[in-house]
Amino acid sequence: MLDAPPCLSPSVLMINPQTNVTDITTLGGFGLTPDCKWVGIAYVSSVDLLFFAAPYDAEAVLIINPRTNVTDTTRLGGFSGDHKWTDITYVQAVDRLYATPASSSSVLVVNPRTNVTDNTTLDGLAAGGSKWWGVAYAPAVGLLYGAPYTADLVLIVNPRTNVTDTSTISNLPSTAPHGKWAGIVYVEPVDALVAAPYAADALLKIRPRTNITDMTLNGFGQANCKFRGIAAMPSGAAVFAPPCNNHSVLTVQFRAEASVIEPLRQIAHLTNAVSEAQAALSATTSALSTSVAARLSAQSYSPENAHLSPRQSWLAWWQSWVG
Is the pTM of this model over 0.85? Predict the structure, then answer.
């Protein structure tokens, strides 16, 4: 089951991808409000298989238990203010959730095991505005990347060292009339992050190993709210961005690049070669051990060597072996 958190809607949107059936009644009761309650959702498999949604105008993280269809808006609460965080993602390597700041001056960190939130460790960012919209984890480098919405720089977060970086990828074009990009996803076959054009004219592509940006896939125009959010196929062969004010879904297909695939092929080849060598060595060792044991047994118990000392018996066996 797929769950989408309610922004202006009074209920969670539930989608069964196997039957293509939607449900907007089971998880309701959030009320029709002029404020956008939650933006972005992430699934945590390590603890009770729960969904966590980032509080935008809401005062608490929304927790959804998809097995029991129970929601919780009190356990992780206490956040005041509007437009706090947009989008959230789970990093299994450190077992934490991270939400990108919009008007908040900090990244929101959630420990799903202890139900503890932290909005002070990764603090010190500029307050106000909708700075970043969307966050994705690049496993190749172990870093999180926040897509620039009104900011002209990419937010980079190291979840292991709790360090933020707003200078490595900066001075991006800021000519979009409102937000530039909204939503970002990691595409494994090309080892790159891709952000959806909200009002920007181009897709934003980031190489996490070099932090080089690419905006050559352009021509979308600078109309406001073209696409918001982005997701990749499990194979990574294509990404899809849902339309905001646009009339169609943005689909981008990717072909795995040789610079990414070739090292993987070499690793696979070396792994197979090592496995074959280990198997051959094991078979040779086993045969040699069996042969040595048989010869040693025959030599040790032969009648003509019964009068020899252990050392003399060993020398006699060795001479017959090499001999």
Answer: no
